[in-house]
Write a structure and sequence with these properties.
Layout lengths: L12 H32 L4 H4 L7 H5 L4 H8 L3 E2 L3 H22 L4 H29 L5 H30 L1 H20 L9 E2 L6 H6 L1 H18 L5 H7 L4 H30 L1 H24 L5 H30 L5 H30 L1 H23 L5 H11 L1
Amino acid sequence: MTTVPSGSHAPSPAGVFVAVGGLYIAQSVIGGLTMLGLPAVLRSQGLPLDQIGLLYLTVIPWAFKFLWSPYVERFRLPAVGRNRSRSIVFAGGLLCAAGLVSIGLTGPYPLAPVLSVLLLVALITSTVDIACDGYAVETLAKEHHGWGNTAQVGGSYLGSALGAGLFLILVERIGWSYATFTMASLVILLGLPFVFGPASRSAVETRSHAPSLLLALKRPQVQRGLMIAAIYVAAQKWGLSMLGPFLIDRGFDLASIGILNGVGSMIVGFSGALLGGMLVRLWGGTTVLILAILLQTMLLAAFALFSFDGSLPRAFIIPIAIASSSGVMSVGFVALYSQFMGWSDPKQAGVDFTLFQCADGMVSMAGGLGAGWISEHFGYPFFFTAAAIVSVLAIPAIGLLMRGMNDNAVVLAQLSDGR
């Protein structure tokens, strides 16, 4: 892996933060549209929940991008030459925008063609993400890695606000086509700071390390980290996969859900990301992870109660939904992703970090597909109750696995010396 450029070629941390932050926002615009916005649109048109759950197939590229991450990194970082991150991002942004324009022209249903296009867009976006993560880790000096983590988590919530919040409001006001065209334009605009920013001024370098998936999988720290990631994602995400359709079935319109998603992501989610970073520094990653699961369990139990007893005032659902999908999630995932950075080998952080993200994607996809089927056949009360039980069981599992994972820097240094 290349080292941080020196001299006149070294970009400012603020410039890198803005550049990669724009890409993280753009990725989450697409993700928010696909996973939160589109399910609500489809449910408002009467599609059954088990069909809506098929949208979680778009997580497949995110779940398996570790398979091609070494090849992307080797192309991006040639043995001799300039960093190719800019080329990957530029081409990927154009292709993603073209995909959104195409579904804007065809409409949100029938679902099969829309799903096919979104799968292709997800493949492109996940590949761009490998380059973006690798560029951030290698370009920012170690003391500025927190900037990259803030850009990733904060950008994801801002992008989700646009893709799930603003998008639904636009669908309600100006229709599907123009709303989707607007999102395509945003994807292009958000990529410009990277394409014309610090990535355009890379220097010719010589690199000796070839990124390897096998080296990552051999490390016990990565193996245990993957188990932690899988359990934690199941506890945090599974119960929220049917939140949009649930709110539609309880009488909320698309504009209301859009406002909920937008306010939750932009204000509560971003604030939660900042709070999560502070709590990790004060209490450590393990404590924050377990605290987030506890809070999510209580919120899922509240959803289960409301789904049993529909007489509970709708006003109670709004703060619970925002707290669950934005507040608690952002606090917990800042802690989890900070652990990912610590568990990644600096010599091939793009590959290692991608592995952890893929565990997130695989578990999210499995939970989303199962959530639609369970909700359709057994109802929301059973679904939310089962999700709360999964969260409870995750607490002791996370606690046990996190033992011995705190001295990450020491262990990694020993492993690197012995390689």
